[in-house]
């Protein structure tokens, strides 16, 4: 048990050992848990500061759970890389929630995490009480995804932690002028791990095999059919104003199909906004509180 969260290991449906963090509030309450699902190569540490804020919120404290997908963070690497897909990962999330005895929750999905929420809407809709999409929707821009693939395929390990933060600022800084050096340092410690003095990306390199062969010159498959299943749920979409992944036209179509959708455009950030920065924690807390009231 960390000073701020409990580490939980659980079994995936196929037996792979997976990891999650559970942030417990200090006061008893009946507020819905918040489930945080990270991006493609990211892990539970992405949400650490946000989870601390929401678990200890003065008005609406709640349990917060953050997951490491298989092959990321402290979850085991899968010997079969083809299992690194959103359907398998959605099943893993459900296994983790069952292990934690969570039947209903508000979900936050960053990038790939949002895709997994779309899958959950199809296979386990009863578990979704409200949804927050962080710079993701049922359709993504091919060019933005191509840029992510190019960056990941060319990424080099940094020599030290200072260089790790500087490297991320060099690569992403133009899209994130709102961030300060402390943000980049925190970001570096979330995406890298140190093993025997070597700093490396904290995911299975075989994960990148899933991106091979994608034709970024054509429109990528979409999840509009699954998005329609969310029409009766409270929904918040957060978009970085400089993102290349989530087009404003996609947000407009999401709003047309879900008129009650709430929208936040984050200035000075790209893909994907850092949810612990600025007013985002309070806005997320307020949205989740609204879901609590609706459920009661």
Describe the protein's architecture and organization.
With 296 residues, this protein is α/β, with parallel strands linked by helices. It has a single domain (6-142, 220-295), classed as Alpha/Beta hydrolase fold, catalytic domain (Rossmann fold, 3-Layer(aba) Sandwich), CATH 3.40.50. 34% of the residues lie in helices and 18% in strands. The chain has nine helices and ten strands. The chain has helices at 48-55, 86-99, 112-123, 142-154, 161-172, 181-191, 224-227, 248-257, 280-295; strands at 6-11, 17-23, 34-37, 64-68, 105-110, 128-134, 192-195, 198-201, 235-240, 262-266. The strands form two sheets. It has an eight-stranded mixed sheet with strand order 1-2-4-3-5-6-9-10, sandwiched between helices. The protein starts with 5 loop residues before the first strand and ends with a helix.
What labels would you give this structure?
10 strands; 9 helices; single chain; alpha/beta; globular; Rossmann fold
Number of helices: 9
**Name of the CATH first level:** Alpha Beta
Q: pLDDT below 50 for ≥5 consecutive residues: which ranges?
A: none
Order of helices and strands: EEEHEHEHEHHHEEHEHEH
Rg over CA atoms? 18 Å
Largest sheet: 8 strands, mixed
Shape: globular
Corresponding CATH architecture? 3-Layer(aba) Sandwich
Structural class assignment? alpha/beta
How many domain regions? 1
Please list the strands of the largest sheet in the order they lie side by side.
1-2-4-3-5-6-9-10
Helical proportion?
A: 25-40%
Separation, N- and C-terminal Cα atoms? 32 Å
> Averaging pLDDT over every residue, what do you get?
96
CATH level 3 topology: Rossmann fold
Estimate what percentage of residues fall within beta strands: 15-25%
Q: Please count the beta strands (DSSP E, at least 2 residues each).
A: 10
- CATH homologous superfamily annotation: Alpha/Beta hydrolase fold, catalytic domain
């Amino acid at each position: 048990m960390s000073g701020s969260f409990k580490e939980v290991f659980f079994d995936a449906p196929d037996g792979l050992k997976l990891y999650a963090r559970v942030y417990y509030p200090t006061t008893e309450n009946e507020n819905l848990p918040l489930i945080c699902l990270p991006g493609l190569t990211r892990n539970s540490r992405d949400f650490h500061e946000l989870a601390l804020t929401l678990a200890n919120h003065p008005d609406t404290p709640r349990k917060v759970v953050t997951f490491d997908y298989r092959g990321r963070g402290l979850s085991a690497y899968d010997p079969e890389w083809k299992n690194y897909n959103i359907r398998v990962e959605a099943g893993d999330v459900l296994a983790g929630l069952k292990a934690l005895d969570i039947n209903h929750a508000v979900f936050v999905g960053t990038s790939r995490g949002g895709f997994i929420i779309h899958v959950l809407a199809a296979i386990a809709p009863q578990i979704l009480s409200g949804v927050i999409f962080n710079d993701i929707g049922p359709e993504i821009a091919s060019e933005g995804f191509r840029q992510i693939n190019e960056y990941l395929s060319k990424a080099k390990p940094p020599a030290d932690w200072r260089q790790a933060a500087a490297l991320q600022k060099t690569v992403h800084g133009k899209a994130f002028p709102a961030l300060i050096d402390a943000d980049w340092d925190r970001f570096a410690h979330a995406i890298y791990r140190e093993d025997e003095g070597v700093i490396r990306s904290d995911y299975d390199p075989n994960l990148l095999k899933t991106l091979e062969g994608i034709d970024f010159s054509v429109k990528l498959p979409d999840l509009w059919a699954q998005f329609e299943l969310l029409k009766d749920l409270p929904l918040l979409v957060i978009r970085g104003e400089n993102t290349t992944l989530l087009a404003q036209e996609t947000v407009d179509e999401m709003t047309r199909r879900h008129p009650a959708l709430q929208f936040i455009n984050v200035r000075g950030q790209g893909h994907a906004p850092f949810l612990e920065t600025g007013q985002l924690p309070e806005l997320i807390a307020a949205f989740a509180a609204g879901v609590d009231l609706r459920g009661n």
